[in-house]
Amino acid sequence: MQEAIVSMALAGAIIGAAVGGWINDRFGRKKAIVFADTLFFIGSAVMGGAPNPSVLIVGRVFVGLGVGMASMASPLYISEASPTRVRGALVSLNGFLITGGQFLSYLINLAFTKARGTWRWMLGVAAVPALIQIILMSTLPESPRWLFRKGREEEGKAILRKIYSPHEVEAEINTLRESVEMEIRKHRKNQHSDNVENTNCEKSPTIVQLAGFASNRTALLLLFGVVFSLVVLTVVFHQSTTHSPMFSPIETSHFNNTCPDYHTSVNPGAWDCTKCLKASPECGFCASSANKLLPGACLISNVTTKDQCHIEERLWYTRGCPSKFGWLAIVGLALYIIFFSPGMGTVPWVVNSEIYPLRYRGICGGMASTSNWVSNLIVAQSFLSLTQAIGTAWTFMIFIFITVAAIIFVIILVPETKGLPMEEVEKMLERNSLNFKFWQRSSRNGEQVPAQKTESI
Q: Which residues form the Major facilitator superfamily (MFS) profile domain (predicted)?
């Protein structure tokens, strides 16, 4: 039941991200965000007042739909309704605020642990920010790029004049108009050609540079940090497993409540805390009263045994074993969050909000967001099973291999678009070549120029 309650939000996010692309293109970015907020508000209210687990699951689905839809609509709206020079920075800021919101949610949940109806407040309070955003979105304009695409140029121009300074706005209007007209001409031409264009995520002249600090070079540097933090976690959990406190028959007999699996073990002399916990979910480890790293007792796991262990001021373990390396696991986890949040946690959203043709931006952004939530669901459903089957250290080792594969993918296939004029990005993408020298770009005359010397548009 717990797995179902957790998973339904992710399943809802997959559906929300999948249909969110169509809603974005059909009704606009602003309405898509408001719709996502409405789903989130309904879901939070349903969860807060759920009379049984089934209704709670329904609420989780609604919340998931809203999260999935907002996850691709928000960066898309921000990228299209913000000035070019700060576009990447603002999309990245969105990712930072999501991470900050997650941290804030832990503090809020902590505050409600002592309140009546604890979990109802924890789940129901999420309706408040959704309602606030619904109200605030009414004061914001629609995406000018979407308006241009829909033929509502005058509305788009009015919004652009509020976004850009007087000496920039005309150039932006002309660029956007030419971009949309070129896409429309190309789309009509392909409709009448023998080689009809499929609705895919091709790249076209609508691509604009990524502003701010977001770039694939930034993501690569931070990806290496992710690998380092995962290596730390792998080593720590391996050391904790191979150097866990030994089983003490004397300590165990003190409680007269020995884990039954110990008596049937083939090699009881090799038992330690790790073997005790892996033997059966019904077994727990009571650490030594002198030092938690000294040999302890392997006992039947129940409330009575746990209380007996605590009465003697011992530590009781059922999920992991005592380790002198435990603090390193916290450091490794903190490093992972530090490297992931500004890197792969934000940069892909910037890229996906910029790199697609305007007419396919919503659909392709939805596809990318859907793949993200599918991956989340896979990890959520497999992590505990993997740790039980192969151990925590080997589970993190799998994540290391995946991250290394991501680094190779970025180096070879993801182009660097920061600081590039649109026409140069277009040529680079149309060549569809491998990008091993991702730190360099080709100038118009074919010479290699350093990335930091390329001017912004």
A: 1-418
